[in-house]
Amino acid sequence: MKRILTGDRPTGRLHLGHFVGSLKNRVKLQDEYDQFVMLADVQALTDNFDNPQKVRDSIKEVTLDYLSVGIDPQKTTIFIQSQIPQIAELTVFYMNLVTVARLYRNPTVKEEMKQKGIEENVTLGFLAYPVSQAADITFCKADLVPVGADQVPMIEQTREIVRKFNSIYGQILVEPEPLVGDFPRLVGTDGQAKMSKSLNNAIFLADSSEEVEKKVMDMYTDPKRIKPTDLGTVEGNPVFIYLDAFTTETDKHKLDDFKSRYKEGKVGDVEVKQYLVKVLNNFLDPIREKRKEYENQPHLIEKILKEGTKKAIAEAEKTMKEVKIAMKIDYFYHDKHQ
Ligand code: TRP
Predict the structure, then answer these.
(1) What is each CA distance from 242 to 95, 215, 238, in whole angstroms?
(2) Stretch (H or E) spanning 263
(3) 130 C-alpha to ligand 1 centroid (Å)
């Protein structure tokens, strides 16, 4: 079975955009692959080092999000990045194999620095996070990394590091392939290109039905449409984008009917939104239920994270042993206890 490694920065609860863009796919992939999912708290700290409580709280929230959408700890190894010391060790070794100029050229890092306005005073930790991400991916010799298109430069950087490592020290590491889903990014409730907590345009997996209703009724739709009798535009309309993403197969005909009536000016925005509230709450209800089950068993969540982390450490130890022998820093390996 091929191995997958992927993960998220724990910086807040996950939302519908995460579901469409990655969680849904992970639930499927766990049946076909040996899947590792990492809570990337060390990476989250690269730009949240002054807010450790947020990262700490998000570990639990994101784990609950994973479990409630159906990521199954029997099939998927869920673990915490900071608890794998070998990732930090590998990062240090890989730093010799990457130039600072190459990191500045990494398109994802470049874009993030611009967004955060830290081009002039970026920390070493932030600039180097692609190196740490290479360690995330290689410590368990992952074959595949399912990611969004924005993360492809990270995988490319990892592949370069792996090739360089292997050419100098020997064929130890596995060169991973990105597994890019063709999932379009879910727009925000305000119509902006990206659903995001910081843009305040997100519907969270943990939102109550009342919160969902409020957010949907406030949603941005077709701005040119004033009255229900005006001809409406379906394409690019966030309400219909969400309906497309969350309508079940059996309800497709209802959606098609709403679409044609919308285009012909025969249905009001309020009615379509009320329908979307129903669709989203039907989708979220079982997720909420599962979340509640787990919320009532905090010890179980801790156990899942502990066991996943233990399994990840076992993989890390195997790789690290090979790496240290290859790098000729295996000074004490002849000792019996090693
Ligand atoms: N950089 C990813 C993000 O921002 C999170 C991440 C950390 C990750 N380490 C990873 C993703 C390794 C895939 C593989 O979403």
Answers:
(1) 43, 13, 6
(2) helix 252-263
(3) 9
Structure tokens at 85: 């010391």
Domains of the chain: 3-186+298-337 (3.40.50.620), 209-293 (1.10.240.10)
Tokens found for residue 42: 């060390």
What is the rounded (10 degree) CA torsion for 245, 137, 66, 42?
-120
The letter for the amino acid at 221 is T
Q: Is 4 in the pocket of ligand 1 (CB under 6 A)?
A: no
Whose CA is closest to 70, among 109, 124, 121, 30?
A: 30
Strand order in the sheet with 177-180: 76-80, 34-39, 3-8, 144-147, 177-180
Contact call for residues 333 and 324 (beta carbons, < 8 A): yes
Q: Report how far ligand 1's centroid is from the alpha carbon of 38 (Å).
A: 8
Does position 336 have pLDDT exceeding 80, yes or no?
no
The residue assigned the tokens 């390996």 is: 333
How long, in residues, is the chain?
338
Q: Distance from the CA of 87 to the center of ligand 1, in angstroms? A: 13
Amino acid at 206: A
Quick one: the chain helix, strand, coil %, rounded to 5? 60, 10, 35
| Alpha-carbon distance values, 85 to 56, 81, 286 (Å) | 18, 8, 37
Backbone angles phi, psi at 34, to 5 degrees: -85, 95
- pLDDT tens for 201-255 read 999 999 999 999 999 999 999 889 989 999 999 999 999 999 999 999 999 999 9
pLDDT in tens, 72-91: 999 999 999 999 999 999 99
Mutate to test the pocket of ligand 1, among 66, 91, 133 (most ligand atoms within 8 A of CB): 133
- Mutating to test ligand 1, I would choose from 18, 33, 38, 42 the residue with most ligand atoms within 8 A of its C-beta, which is 38
